[in-house]
Amino acid sequence: MPTAKQGDTVKIHYTGTLEDGTVFDSSDGGEPLAFTLGEGQVIAGFESATLGMEVGESKTAHIDADDAYGERREELVLEVPREQLPEGLEVEVGTPLQLQQPDGNAVPVTVSALNEEHVTLDANHPLAGEPLTFELTLVGIG
Fold first, then answer.
1. What are phi and psi of 106, to 5 degrees?
2. Domain 74-122 - what CATH class?
3. Which of 3, 49, 70, 127 has the greatest count of CB atoms below 10 A from its CB?
4. Under a CB-based contact definition with an 8 Å cutoff, are residues 73 and 124 in contact?
5. Region for 52 from its dihedrals, namely left if φ exceeds 0, alpha if ψ lies in -120 to 50, beta otherwise
6. Count of CB atoms situated within 10 Å of the CB of 108
7. Where are the alpha helices (DSSP H) in the chain?
8. Are 36 and 9 in contact (CB under 8 A)?
Protein backbone atom coordinates (compact mmCIF):
# COMPACT_ATOMS: atom_id res chain seq x y z
CA MET A 1 0.00 0.00 0.00
CA PRO A 2 1.39 3.46 -0.87
CA THR A 3 2.60 5.72 1.91
CA ALA A 4 2.65 9.51 2.11
CA LYS A 5 5.92 10.94 0.78
CA GLN A 6 7.44 14.32 -0.11
CA GLY A 7 5.52 15.97 -2.96
CA ASP A 8 2.27 14.08 -2.29
CA THR A 9 -0.92 16.02 -1.68
CA VAL A 10 -2.58 14.39 1.31
CA LYS A 11 -5.92 14.68 3.06
CA ILE A 12 -5.91 14.17 6.79
CA HIS A 13 -8.43 14.41 9.59
CA TYR A 14 -6.96 15.71 12.82
CA THR A 15 -7.69 16.89 16.33
CA GLY A 16 -5.09 19.06 18.05
CA THR A 17 -4.88 19.29 21.84
CA LEU A 18 -2.78 21.10 24.42
CA GLU A 19 -1.03 19.36 27.33
CA ASP A 20 -4.12 19.84 29.54
CA GLY A 21 -6.34 18.12 26.93
CA THR A 22 -7.95 21.31 25.62
CA VAL A 23 -8.85 20.95 21.93
CA PHE A 24 -7.51 23.96 20.00
CA ASP A 25 -8.39 22.81 16.47
CA SER A 26 -10.07 19.92 14.70
CA SER A 27 -11.36 18.86 11.30
CA ASP A 28 -14.01 16.74 13.05
CA GLY A 29 -17.36 17.27 11.38
CA GLY A 30 -15.77 19.05 8.43
CA GLU A 31 -13.55 18.45 5.45
CA PRO A 32 -10.12 16.89 5.98
CA LEU A 33 -7.10 19.17 5.79
CA ALA A 34 -5.42 18.95 2.37
CA PHE A 35 -1.79 19.98 1.89
CA THR A 36 1.29 19.04 -0.12
CA LEU A 37 4.13 17.42 1.81
CA GLY A 38 7.38 19.34 1.55
CA GLU A 39 5.86 22.74 0.76
CA GLY A 40 5.78 24.10 4.33
CA GLN A 41 2.01 24.55 4.35
CA VAL A 42 1.66 23.12 7.86
CA ILE A 43 3.89 23.14 10.94
CA ALA A 44 7.01 20.99 10.64
CA GLY A 45 5.99 18.44 13.28
CA PHE A 46 2.58 17.88 11.67
CA GLU A 47 4.21 17.30 8.30
CA SER A 48 6.83 14.93 9.77
CA ALA A 49 4.13 12.92 11.52
CA THR A 50 2.23 12.51 8.24
CA LEU A 51 5.22 11.23 6.25
CA GLY A 52 5.09 7.45 5.85
CA MET A 53 1.44 7.08 6.85
CA GLU A 54 -0.85 4.82 4.79
CA VAL A 55 -4.42 5.70 3.81
CA GLY A 56 -6.69 4.67 6.68
CA GLU A 57 -3.87 4.75 9.24
CA SER A 58 -4.39 6.65 12.51
CA LYS A 59 -1.73 7.77 14.95
CA THR A 60 -1.00 10.14 17.80
CA ALA A 61 1.78 12.68 17.25
CA HIS A 62 3.38 14.62 20.11
CA ILE A 63 5.07 17.75 18.75
CA ASP A 64 7.51 19.89 20.72
CA ALA A 65 7.08 23.67 20.54
CA ASP A 66 10.17 23.97 18.33
CA ASP A 67 8.49 21.84 15.63
CA ALA A 68 5.14 23.59 16.11
CA TYR A 69 4.94 27.38 16.46
CA GLY A 70 8.31 27.89 18.14
CA GLU A 71 9.15 29.20 21.56
CA ARG A 72 7.58 32.42 22.85
CA ARG A 73 9.82 35.38 22.13
CA GLU A 74 9.56 38.34 24.50
CA GLU A 75 10.97 40.67 21.84
CA LEU A 76 7.69 40.15 19.96
CA VAL A 77 5.74 41.78 22.82
CA LEU A 78 5.39 45.53 22.42
CA GLU A 79 3.86 48.15 24.72
CA VAL A 80 2.44 51.15 22.85
CA PRO A 81 0.79 54.35 24.08
CA ARG A 82 -3.00 54.25 23.61
CA GLU A 83 -2.87 57.45 21.57
CA GLN A 84 -0.99 55.55 18.84
CA LEU A 85 -4.08 53.42 18.21
CA PRO A 86 -6.58 54.62 15.60
CA GLU A 87 -9.10 57.07 17.06
CA GLY A 88 -12.28 55.36 18.26
CA LEU A 89 -10.78 51.87 18.19
CA GLU A 90 -12.08 49.89 21.17
CA VAL A 91 -9.80 47.06 22.31
CA GLU A 92 -9.80 44.49 25.07
CA VAL A 93 -7.49 41.64 26.00
CA GLY A 94 -7.67 39.11 23.16
CA THR A 95 -8.54 41.61 20.42
CA PRO A 96 -6.70 40.70 17.19
CA LEU A 97 -5.07 43.61 15.34
CA GLN A 98 -2.53 44.13 12.57
CA LEU A 99 0.58 46.29 12.65
CA GLN A 100 1.83 47.77 9.41
CA GLN A 101 5.57 47.29 8.87
CA PRO A 102 7.66 49.89 6.99
CA ASP A 103 7.80 47.50 3.99
CA GLY A 104 4.00 47.43 3.84
CA ASN A 105 3.57 43.91 5.23
CA ALA A 106 1.00 43.42 7.97
CA VAL A 107 1.92 41.60 11.18
CA PRO A 108 -0.92 39.99 13.15
CA VAL A 109 -0.85 40.85 16.87
CA THR A 110 -3.14 40.23 19.83
CA VAL A 111 -3.85 42.63 22.66
CA SER A 112 -2.39 40.85 25.69
CA ALA A 113 -2.77 43.58 28.35
CA LEU A 114 -3.96 47.15 28.66
CA ASN A 115 -4.31 50.00 31.09
CA GLU A 116 -5.35 53.66 30.87
CA GLU A 117 -2.13 54.71 29.13
CA HIS A 118 -0.74 51.69 27.26
CA VAL A 119 -1.78 48.67 25.21
CA THR A 120 0.46 45.58 25.12
CA LEU A 121 0.56 43.86 21.73
CA ASP A 122 1.87 40.31 21.28
CA ALA A 123 3.06 39.18 17.85
CA ASN A 124 3.79 35.62 19.02
CA HIS A 125 1.53 32.95 17.56
CA PRO A 126 -1.12 32.12 20.21
CA LEU A 127 0.29 28.55 20.42
CA ALA A 128 3.96 29.62 20.62
CA GLY A 129 5.78 27.79 23.40
CA GLU A 130 3.17 25.04 23.56
CA PRO A 131 3.87 21.37 22.92
CA LEU A 132 0.98 20.00 20.86
CA THR A 133 -0.63 16.61 20.41
CA PHE A 134 -2.48 15.63 17.25
CA GLU A 135 -4.70 12.63 16.59
CA LEU A 136 -4.23 12.02 12.87
CA THR A 137 -6.04 9.85 10.31
CA LEU A 138 -4.80 9.86 6.73
CA VAL A 139 -7.83 9.69 4.45
CA GLY A 140 -6.25 10.24 1.05
CA ILE A 141 -3.11 10.57 -1.04
CA GLY A 142 -3.52 12.13 -4.42
1. -100, 140
2. mainly beta
3. 49
4. yes
5. left
6. 13
7. 44-50
8. yes
Q: Which CATH architecture has domain 9-70+127-141?
A: Roll (3.10)
Phi (first) and psi of residue 76, to 5 degrees: -95, 5
Do residues 50 and 134 touch, judged by C-beta distance below 8 A? no
Domain boundaries, the chain: 9-70+127-141, 74-122
CB 24 within 8 A of CB 18: yes
pLDDT band at 11 (very low <50, low <70, confident <90, very high): very high
Greatest pairwise CA separation for the chain in angstroms: 62
pLDDT of 101 higher than 90: no
For residues 57 and 129, what is the distance between their CA atoms, to the nearest angstrom? 29
- Residue 15's φ and ψ, nearest 5 degrees, are -135, 125
pLDDT per position as a tens digit, 32-71:
999 999 999 999 999 999 999 999 999 999 999 999 999 9
The closest alpha carbon to 56, from 9, 7, 4, 17, belongs to 4
Query: How far, in Å, are 72, 76, 100, 110, 125 from residue 107 at the CA level?
Result: 16, 11, 6, 10, 11
